[in-house]
Amino acid sequence: MRKMYLIAAVWLSLLLLAACSDGAGKGSGGKIADTGLSAAPAEDSAIRVPRSTSQPQSSSQPYLGRVYKVVVDPGHGGDDPGAVSVSGRMEKDFNLGLSEKIAANVEQDPQLEILLTRTGDAFISSQELFRPQFANNLPADLFISIHGNTYEDASASGTETFYYHEESLAWAETIHKHVIQATGLKDRGVKKGNFFVLRDTVMPSVLLELGYLTNPGDEAKMWTSGFQESVASAVVDGIREYLGLE
């Protein structure tokens, strides 16, 4: 009987030893896993917080206010070249280039929309009154006709602004104030002029004579990108001041 108890005790000891050995193996494996989780994740498996679908994708809000329409008229065009400069260049090209720069200056401004009476070297008959009718039919809030001046006396120089209706005088004075600073040419002032683009438009309208293409000094400046960019910016500043835009 005693011998049987000894055998049972030996078997029980062996079973307990095996159980302890198996538990240690499992515990060791768990510890390694824990260490792995506490390590920094690889760059390509970094944790990313998902974007909430309830939040807007952009912080900017759409502009819901009034949009002012401003017609910019590049004078002449096509078979009507306008003045020929002392270097043989055409006024129509100067007018279009400057007008396009004015439009480019407000591309990101939701409060202003610039519309050109021509976007290429197109001939527009003055007899059909397309330019003022284009502005009237929109209807536009402001009208600006862009020109380079000419005179038989090559010494004539400077910048001047024309208006026709008395309702356009304040607009003419405002934009002239900005443009004359940009051109740096002689200030020839604000004047009343009986031009059809001013006479037949129903909104405040001006005609800008930026400088004399027949004057060597004026012309040399007028074709430079610096001059045109400065004037374009000044025109937009004048628009914004007149309309009371921030």
How would you characterize this protein structure?
- There is one protein chain.
- This protein is of the alpha/beta class and about 250 residues long.
- Helix content is about 40%, strand content about 15%.
- It has a six-stranded mixed sheet, with helices on both faces.
- Helix 2 links the parallel strand 1 and strand 2.
- Helix 2 packs across helix 7 and helix 4 runs antiparallel to helix 7.
- The radius of gyration is 39 Å and the shape is globular.
- The N and C termini lie far apart (about 110 Å).
- About 35% of the residues are buried.
Quick tags:
globular; alpha/beta; 6 strands; 246 residues; disordered N terminus; six-stranded mixed sheet; single chain
- Sheet with most strands: 6 strands, mixed
Question: How many beta-strand elements?
Answer: 6
Count of discrete alpha- or pi-helical segments spanning 4 or more residues: 7
What structural category do the secondary elements indicate?
alpha/beta
Low-confidence blocks of residues: 1-11, 14-59
Shape call: globular
Radius of gyration: 39 Å
Order of helices and strands: HEHEHEEHEHEHH
Proportion in β-strands: 15-25%
Biggest sheet strand line-up: 2-1-3-6-4-5
**Residues in helices, as a percent range:** 40-55%
Distance between the termini: 109 Å
Overall pLDDT:
82
